[in-house]
Design brief:
The chain is mainly α. Helices cover 72% and strands 0% of the residues. The protein has one domain. It starts with a helix and ends in a 14-residue tail after the last helix.
Amino acid sequence: MPLVAIGRTFFAIALLGLGVEHIVFHEFVTGRAPAWPDAVPGKLLWVNGSGVLVILAGVFIVIRRGGRQAMLGLGLMVFVWALLRHLPIVAGDALLAGSWTRAGKALAFVGGSLAVAGTLPPIPAAAGGWSRYANTTGPFVRFGGICLGCFLIVSGVQHFKFTTFVVTLIPEWFPGNHMWWAQFAGVALIAGGLGLLVTRTTRLAGLMVGLMLFSWVLIVHLPRTFTSVSDGIALFEALAFSGIALAMAGAPGHLARSTVAGGLSPRLN
């Protein structure tokens, strides 16, 4: 399926970039994990090692060998080191504050990793009984849509709460009223997120969200990397989320008919 292949390629490229940024910025970038505890040694070893693991995950998607195992491992790593550590911060922060954005990105990466895993070749049965669960297809893709959808809805609402900031992200050359565009983007994010949550509209919503986010990669994030170093992270995050959405847009119609590798559509293998 072309959309699945394109989506996985976008996600793989994003992981390669994010993995390098782990090493460059000396931070756990994928999922925007909270800062390393000051009292705990080994920060550089962890961020560099995890960066290499993220890079390898991207490589495994490209070569399509061990890709499913790599995606499950990536999802688990981001879940443990980023998402779970974000939750106490979100609970103690203001409603829809910046911590919600970082936690939402971690959630999207966890679900997205499983969704991409669901489109990759299955793990051989010889690996053990656990492979039956690891080779889940439809539920993985569905879970990824829910995670990404929830993040998009939160982001869309934030566009209205922090409209003044969102306007600063829109290039000066972009035509029309920038305040209107910021609010329109918020509506589009909410609509796309809701579409991903509803099974019947997942494919259409995935396509539209994937195209919208990729357009923002080109129009917003790529130009800003020349003026803002930190936006280089947002560039690969947007590309990753675009890839997740496109992979889901191509996958659900086939994966819905099977939950284990035995019934996986050959076109996705």
